[in-house]
Write a structure and sequence with these properties.
The protein is α+β, with helices and mostly antiparallel strands and 194 residues long. It has a domain of 134 residues. It has a six-stranded antiparallel β-sheet with strand order 1-2-3-5-4-6, sandwiched between helices. A hairpin with a 2-residue loop joins strand 4 and strand 5. It starts with 17 loop residues before the first helix and ends with a strand.
Length: 194
């Protein structure tokens, strides 16, 4: 006897296919393990500094000797094996050789960096000095520099030397002042436009 009611088709709930996901992930893990993983490049030696190197070892020794003599004359300890320091430079000067020597004191063991930029000769350094001085004085060029940073620029032959100080961050302001006075006494200061 039919009552006129028909049974509604039953729907099955679809469940998340955990089994499929587990099989796929497991398969990828096994494949990765069996293939040996990514290729490892051959060792190429230690990473080099991003700073351009001197034209010759004699030139590098001469520039380093100049900076060391300034630091020792200031009564500070020279640190010659230091990380690369990148002062703000006009783009055309980024490829020139740079030498960094830090002036360390008991209150500032990391030292204040002196950066020397080597040019082909004294005339080229003199011509670049006014351009670099104007660049260091223009606030638009000093985006990544602390707002109270102070620059001093000096020339010795074919080398320009940059001293950058940040009075708010100086660990040893007395040593920084002594270094500046020593630079002014030993090298030719290039005035920065104010």
């Amino acid at each position: 006897m039919a009552t006129g009611m028909s049974e509604a088709p039953t729907t099955r709930k679809r469940r998340f296919p955990y089994t499929t996901v587990i099989v796929l992930v497991g398969g990828m893990a096994i494949f990765s393990f069996l293939s040996g993983g990514p290729l490892v490049p051959d060792p190429q030696g230690p990473a080099a500094s991003a700073a351009p190197t001197a034209r010759s070892s004699a030139e590098a020794a001469q520039v380093e000797g100049l900076l060391v003599s300034v630091v020792t004359a200031a009564g500070l300890g020279p640190i010659v094996a230091s990380a690369d320091v990148r002062p703000p430079l006009p783009p055309e000067m980024n490829s020139l050789p740079r030498t960094v020597v830090r002036a360390a004191s008991s209150r500032d063991p990391n030292g204040i960096p002196l950066v020397a930029i080597s040019f082909s000769d004294a005339a080229a350094a003199r011509a670049a000095a006014s351009q670099l001085a104007a660049y260091l004085a223009a606030p638009v060029n000093l985006v990544l520099v602390p707002p109270d940073a102070e620059f001093s620029l000096f020339q010795s032959g074919n080398v320009l030397v940059i001293l950058q100080r940040t009075p708010s961050a100086d660990l040893d302001s007395e040593a920084a002042n002594t270094l500046l006075i020593t630079l002014q006494g030993m090298l030719e200061e290039v005035p920065l436009p104010r």
